Amino acid sequence: MGDKVTEVEQHGIAPIPPEEQTSRPRDLFRMAFGGANTFATIILGTLPIAFGLSFWAAVAATVAGVVVGALVLSPMSLFGPLTRTNNAVSSGAHFGVVGRCVGSFLSLLTAITFFAISVWVSGDAVAGAAQRLFGFDGGEVLRGVAYGVIAIATLVVCIYGYRFMLLVNRVAVVLGTAIMLLGIVAYGGTFDPGFAGTGTYALGDFWPTWILAALTTMANPISFGAFLGDWTRYIPARHSRRSLLAAPFLAQVATLLPFGFGIATATLVADPADYITGLTAISPLWYAIPLIVVALIGGLSTGTTSLYGTGLDFSSIFVKLSRVQATLLIGSLSVVFIFVGNFVLDMVSSINAFATLIVLCTSPWMVIMMIGFVLRRGFYDPDDLQVFNQGRKGGRYWFTRGVNWRAMAAWIPATTLGLLTANTPMIAGPFKDIAGGVDVSMVVTLCTAAIAYPVLVKLFPEPREVYSYAEPVTEPAVAV
């Protein structure tokens, strides 16, 4: 791959040649922060206020969700430098080269959600700012055109690939941060940190609603779990694990800026559930143009970081599709979701439902990956991870017909129990009241995965060859 951003990236999910691993952990920070320093994160920041929380309760829930989510996310940066491929393919070492399709499904779920959020909020911000500046109410036609333009621009960046995305995120980090800080001047005179909330909690009581806000916030860092490998595969393994762990963690902590912007400004709008319209209505005229800029740049940044990885991954499942063709296919499906979600369904409720699915489906998958990393002591065979992508069978990670049933037998119950105990407006399981209405689904799904997978590996040892004939951390593996 050339160094020019104008060259279309040719690499798919095959291992990146070592000589082309030229990125650094700070590039990972820039990609992860740039992809989240956007209006999509701002929208997630407004939801605790829309749920009825006070300003300080919303801040506490957001900080808790971001920090816990960042701690779960950080270890996912360790795989790419070793396997030189994305995290979905890397998961084949633990789920089997066919079972790794679980990771592909999770990346698809996340890509559609965050691509939709980025295009939706950016398009609404453009339409709202146009009305504020020029008094022109284009209605649904203007919004539809704005969605289409932003979606096409996002697809173009994804098609060019990693280097172009890195450039967009460099701009997004600086410009987005500056404009959000400028919001202190724009809204500082009317902001009241004593905002007491709407008086009506989304789930009836304070603590269930507070937990709902924290879990919704957590969806932001968790959503990067399937995508970190898209960027870390360009980082050589010689970099310290400490720096690889720190980059995504610090990037997520830095997102407290856009989260804080969303929380603070949501207290000012008349209806937090209609945030974009309300924000443009209360914005000073001089701030309307910067608002459009951060919406457009941020939309590109968030949309590309999610869509790029899914297009990359699906090109390996449907081998007749190139990375570019797979990206166009997934992008087109996402655009359909945007229009249906916004013009037919309730987009805020749809986002909340997808955010819940992302957290409860992706977090146990990540836990199994992390435990597997420890058990394997960081050993991976990049060539054998590519068996399924190349239409072959066998290799270290073939297990049983390409699936490691131990990992699947841990992930499926963990996800199922999480959904059964969930308590959200759109997804409410039959056991939602098991803790007095407090949503314990995250604790249930993480604990189930963290206990089930090591126990299954101990009772039914994995083939010795996945450890490169070294002793596993738990028990000696059966010979193959």
TrEMBL record:
Residues 1-10 have a biased composition (Basic and acidic residues). One of its GO terms (molecular function) is transmembrane transporter activity. InterPro entries: Pur-cyt_permease, Pur-cyt_permease_Fcy2/21/22. It holds the Pfam family Transp_cyt_pur. One of its GO terms (cellular component) is plasma membrane. The chain crosses the membrane at residues 28-49, 55-76, 97-121, 141-160, 167-187, 207-228, 249-270, 285-305, 326-345, 351-375, 403-422, 434-456. It is found in: Membrane. Keywords: Membrane, Transmembrane, Transmembrane helix, Transport. Residues 1-22 are annotated as: Disordered. It is a multi-pass membrane protein. Belongs to the purine-cytosine permease (2.A.39) family. This is Purine-cytosine permease-like protein.
